[in-house]
Design goal:
The chain has 106 residues and is mostly beta strands. 12% of the residues lie in helices and 33% in strands.
């Protein structure tokens, strides 16, 4: 079983920091979040992210306990999470502020 690093308990993605992951391999979270495992739906290159749970289109992608972007499509648990399915909010103060205010309303 391969492992992905998870920085905060709130994160919905893990990062392949030890080695790449092949499609079909079972992946286990380690770090501050454990006890979650998913099967990789696509190859996950070294340093890239895998969804640990479903992330609906328009929802925040959470890493470091913070939103790093917005899902542009429905992302299934086990999917490769990268620029093909996430719009970054880094450097986009308008998006980061909007997501922070939406999170406060929940």
């Amino acid at each position: 079983m391969k492992r992905v690093f998870v920085i905060e308990r709130e994160d919905n993605v893990g990062t392949a920091v030890l080695e790449p992951i092949e499609a079909g391999e079972t992946v286990e979270a380690y770090g501050r979040l454990t006890g979650i495992s998913v099967v990789a739906n696509q190859p996950i290159p070294y340093g890239h992210k895998i969804a640990l749970r479903d992330i609906p289109r328009g929802a925040a992608v959470i890493k470091y306990g913070l939103s790093i972007g917005t899902a542009t499509v429905d992302i299934r648990a086990g999917d490769h999470v990268h620029i093909h399915n996430v719009e970054s909010n880094r450097g986009r103060g308008d998006l980061a502020a909007q997501q922070t205010s939406q999170g406060a309303e929940s």
